[in-house]
Amino acid sequence: MHRRPLLGCIADDFTGATDLANNLVRSGMRTVQTIGVPADADALVNADAIVVALKSRTIPADEAVVQSLAALRWLQAQGVAQVYFKYCSTFDSTPAGNIGPVTDALLDALHGPGQGFTIACPAFPDNQRTVFKGHLFVGDVLLSDSGMRHHPLTPMTDANLVRVLQAQTRRRVGLVEQAVVARGAEAIAQRFRDLQAEGVGIAVVDAVGNADLLRIGLALAGMPLVTAGSGIAIGLPQNWQTPGEAADQLPPATGRQAVVSGSCSVATNAQVQHFRAQGGPAFAVNPLDIAAGVDVVGQALDWAAPLLAQGSGPVLVHATAQAESVRAVQAQLGVAEAGALVEHTLSRIAAGLVQAGVRQLVVAGGETSGAVVQALGVTQMAIGPQIDPGVPWTAVQSPLCPGEAVHVALKSGNFGSTDFFAKAFARLCAVAGSEKQPT
């Protein structure tokens, strides 16, 4: 029997999409993730929730709006009851958008120009992202004092979300403080009504723990559009009755293991260093070599081939580097050109690794993940068990290895423990019945 989707989600990057799907699956919602807007507008998806993964976080705002509206129309054709626009838990964006412009466009489409009301809440306490007095914290520090201030594409130098969002939207932005949230769902809903009466169109909502997310989730019942990080997904499923069966089952994992990392975040730098310190084989990609015409793809695959043949464990190919090194490269090549070169190169390497027998692949970095998934020709992802908060394993089909499942974990740059890479493969072996790599 066809299951009418309850929740339709639009995610602005691929790691964010799996992050969101992970939280929905953990709450018992059977979830399907698509890569981009499916070409077949008439094909119905049998799931409780659908997540459309876009690669729109860092493209021009007008293009992000066009893609997001296309996703909205497809989700409406699926008959979803509520729409969820998902962005990063660090709210990273440029002053021109894209969070504000996309939110405006979705509200206009659902309610009419300048009409409607929604929230903005990037809080995800399980990953140490909290909002208090409208300010976003990463752990114990303000966003503007965290490593995000050095992000190569979307540096965040202001933690005041009301101010950041107000600069991006035509609507008036208000605040629902934690003292209101702590009083429960009805108090939150009343604050929504009061803000709407004052002419507010978007309310930043404080949340410092999962109990807050649950209260907010109840207050969002029936709201046509929700905008948030993935944390709010912890609170929404309680508004619907779902079968509750295990929703995270994946087929057994086989084949070789590899990690491809393009993120230069503080967390991913630590993960790469830990992998290397533990003796893991690693190949560093130099963007200047790519720009000079060196066959970096061929070099990386030639390096990996004998290691994969041994089957002794995962190999790592990375462009991950410290902030000062990234800035030096960007100064020579330009920010956009450096990023595009690295993404294209790493995606071709990932495709080559899959063709060489890799069937368990960890990808670090949102932009890198988007490029890799597209290079593999993936159109849908089955969401599996969580590795760390916000990062699940998935199973995909790729035309590069027809008939075989490829297990892929897409990790946001800022997510995961220092030993994430080793933990990921151990987790997959434990829950998906992975076969030991052949020797």
Would you mind describing this structure in some detail?
By secondary structure, the chain is an alpha/beta fold. The protein contains 14 helices and 18 strands. It folds into two domains: 7-239, Rossmann fold (3-Layer(aba) Sandwich), CATH 3.40.50; 256-432, Four-carbon acid sugar kinase, nucleotide binding domain (Molybdenum Cofactor Biosythetic Enzyme, Chain A). The chain is 37% helix and 21% strand. The strands form two sheets. It has a 15-stranded mixed beta sheet, sandwiched between helices. The chain has a three-stranded antiparallel beta sheet with strand order 6-7-8, with no helix packed on it.
Number of helices: 14
The beta-strand count equals 18
What about the largest sheet?
A: 15 strands, mixed
Distance between the termini: 44 Å
Estimated helix fraction: 25-40%
Strand order within the widest sheet? 9-10-5-11-4-1-3-2-16-17-18-15-12-14-13
Radius of gyration in whole Å, from Cα? 21 Å
Quaternary organisation? single chain
**SSE-based structural type:** alpha/beta
As a percent range, the share of strand residues is: 15-25%
So what's the overall shape?
A: globular
Q: CATH class of the largest domain, please?
A: Alpha Beta
Number of self-contained structural domains: 2
